[in-house]
Amino acid sequence: MNWKQIIALAASIGTIASPIDLIPDAIPILGLSDDAVAVVVAGYTLYKAIKAFRAARLAKAAGSAAKGAADAAKGAAGTARTSPTGAGTKIIANPGDLPGRRRK
Predict the structure, then answer these.
(1) Contact between 70 and 63 (Cβ < 8 Å)
(2) Cα(34)–Cα(11) distance, rounded to whole angstroms?
(3) Residues 6+ away with beta carbon under 8 Å from 91
(4) Where residue 8 falls among pLDDT bands split at 50, 70, 90?
(5) Domain ranges across the chain
(6) Residue 21: which of 38, 9, 8, 5 has the closest Cα?
């Protein structure tokens, strides 16, 4: 969460919890509108923060997976070679090197 989200969340929670309202609750419909706006602001702020957190976590996981794949490709360089076009396809030199196959 950035500081703007923290301030918006704290202000909306403070507005909801405060007994002093911007618009008095004695006015039938408008009295609850300031509390309703505060609830919407708090919910939207939390929604955006959770969405950003999930996106960052997925990006981190994708980055570590790509790094793991690159490390695995470096380790398998002795048994496999890339195509002459450099497209990244691998030609397996030994059929026993296929994943999930046992060597005899």
Answers:
(1) no
(2) 12
(3) 80, 81, 82, 83
(4) very high
(5) 3-73
(6) 38
